[in-house]
Amino acid sequence: MNVIATDLPGVLLLEPKVFGDGRGFFMETYQAARYHQSGMPESFVQDNHSRSRRGVLRGLHYQLTQPQGKLVWVTRGAVFDVAVDVRRGSPHFGRWYGCVLDDVDHRQLYIPPGFAHGFCVLSDEADFFYKCTAYYHPASERGIAWDDPAIGIDWPLRDVALSAKDQANPRLADQAVENLPIYGI
């Protein structure tokens, strides 16, 4: 596995070894010891799977009191995946990293706790998988506006379909300070 550090410390782009031939391919999507050696100290307690159509944008989400680290990848289709540092006091506060995850390259992205996460579907349909380091806790879920100009994410699509909840997400500057995770905790 090739591990690529991004501009945001802790956010890792992973290129698993894929073994393919005329029958198809095989890859390990997760192996605890190997992933721990690559810089992911957390254990994973929950797996999620979503299916979305082209133009659906999910995010930007994070959990405040029970923050989740996420290992994400796509098994069918393609998405533009984004992590945003929303930890108050972080030297990288408000900065983002984005990349395409698809069923061709099989890359994965690790997003540590304290980062908001979102993705936009680029293909007709996409199956998106993620492993989480903490259980989903609805009461601590928070969100940031996907199109916040201060963050300036360069989304490849502008005409997107959002949930009602995501449409109501505030800009980062409008998020109450007590609703932002603290850097270093």
UniProtKB/TrEMBL annotation:
Top EC class for this record: isomerase
Catalytic reactions of this protein: dTDP-4-dehydro-6-deoxy-alpha-D-glucose = dTDP-4-dehydro-beta-L-rhamnose
The name this protein goes by in its record: dTDP-4-dehydrorhamnose 3,5-epimerase
Keyword terms, alphabetized: Isomerase
Enzyme Commission number(s) from the entry: 5.1.3.13
Pfam family for this entry, one: dTDP_sugar_isom
GO molecular function annotation: dTDP-4-dehydrorhamnose 3,5-epimerase activity
GO annotation terms (biological process): dTDP-rhamnose biosynthetic process; polysaccharide biosynthetic process
Subunit structure: Homodimer.
Pathway connected to this protein: Carbohydrate biosynthesis; dTDP-L-rhamnose biosynthesis
InterPro entries: RmlC-like, RmlC-like_jellyroll, RmlC_Cupin_sf
Cellular component annotations (GO), alphabetically ordered: cytosol
Site keyed Participates in a stacking interaction with the thymidine ring of dTDP-4-oxo-6-deoxyglucose: positions: Y136
